[in-house]
Amino acid sequence: MKLYTKTGDKGKTSVIGGRLDKDHVRVEAYGTVDELNSFVGVAIAELSEELFRDIIKELEKIQHELFDCGGDLAIISKEKNLKANEEMVTFLEERIDAYTDEAPPIQKFILPGGSKASSAIHVCRTVTRRAERLVVQLDKMDQTNQVVLKYLNRLSDYFFAIARVINFRLSVKDVEYERSALVFKDNKTKD
């Protein structure tokens, strides 16, 4: 089997149910989800198995779920066999709550950074937000699986939570935005 088909040489690509221009918002949306999946792989490579076994396992699960989301976004046929589901969202919410409890409370905005692994996760977070914006744009044109949008929204929060936990487990302080007011006033700092 050859990896190249030459069918996209004129700027069109195959989706489930037909063909679209490669710059169509649908292709941009699932392409950005694919890009995100690649960055998750980079982030996994930055994590030590010893300290982050739980997070690595979750990120690998998320890679499969991102593939599901991309597949759902690539469907233009009337018959839709959707894979993204509410259980995926619920799992992220549970993990966000657990990681929020594990990390020290924050009072100010933080900058992406600290450790290299945490920085890689912040890249995932920002690419997730871009994917989310594209799915919103697509949904205005043609209704999409609403769970995908919800999942991406929650996923960016998940990435924020684990970026902080990664720094915490590595004993690296989050980088506070120096001109930030106290925006998370409900949190009390741990000593």
Could you please describe the fold and organization of this structure?
This protein has one domain: Hypothetical Protein Ta1238, Chain: A, CATH 1.20.1200. Helices cover 60% and strands 6% of the residues. The protein contains 5 helices and 4 strands; from the N terminus they run E-E-H-H-H-E-H-H-E. The protein starts with 11 loop residues before the first strand and ends in a 15-residue tail after the last strand. The model has no long low-confidence stretch (mean pLDDT 93).
Topology of this structure?
Layout: E1 12-15, E2 18-21, H1 25-46, H2 49-73, H3 86-102, E3 110-111, H4 116-141, H5 146-169, E4 175-176
Antiparallel strand pairs: 1-2, 3-4
Domain Cobalamin adenosyltransferase-like: 3-165
EC number: 2.5.1.17
Protein name: Corrinoid adenosyltransferase
Short overview:
This protein is mainly α and 191 residues long. It is built from five helices and four strands. The strands form two sheets. It has a two-stranded antiparallel ribbon with strand order 1-2. Strands 3-4 form a two-stranded antiparallel ribbon.
Q: Hey, roughly how much beta strand do the residues contain?
A: 5-15%
CATH architecture type:
Up-down Bundle
Q: SSE string, helix = H, strand = E?
A: EEHHHEHHE
Head-to-tail CA distance between termini: 60 Å
Mean pLDDT: 93
So what's the overall shape? elongated
Number of strands: 4
- Rg is 18 Å
Strand order of the largest sheet: 1-2
**What is the CATH class?**
Mainly Alpha
Helix content: 55-70%
Query: Major sheet: size, sense and barrel closure?
Result: 2 strands, antiparallel
Number of domains: 1
Under CATH, the homologous superfamily reads: Cobalamin adenosyltransferase-like
Secondary structure category: mainly alpha
The poorly predicted ranges are none
Could you say what the CATH topology is called?
Answer: Hypothetical Protein Ta1238, Chain: A
DSSP helix count? 5
